[in-house]
């Protein structure tokens, strides 16, 4: 499948994806990946991340985004007590891919076809809690749903923290790969 994405410049490292494109973004660290998103992504954004809602709110504000147009699915085995302007759910245990899928599908419906963005921040987290085969199947399911909804997604992974076989399996679930290492 031809690539429908690129990085706007090597200096800004901002992603540019066509509507419905699903991208696996290889990074070299666990730094927050919100800095990769273009400004337009913050108009309708769903973030799936192990970071706390308060941290996500702070990062969105630092990026110049409007937290009232951002949703967050927090991946954590512990509850959070966030009560802010950003939409969020209760914490989702990273080993509960069924629960995550259900919450994801609900949140995806709130994003507008052709305009919304999804950011899986540190997708490696799921691999720490669940076997790779289940995580790959999960990624295939959510990228298909996201593609059908006409929503862009960036799935960030720390490439050097996983084996080649797992990475190759994740690549097959997306439309393009962007290596930012």
From TrEMBL:
Native species: Halapricum salinum
InterPro entries tied to this protein: DUF7504 (IPR055927)
Protein name, per record: DUF835 domain-containing protein
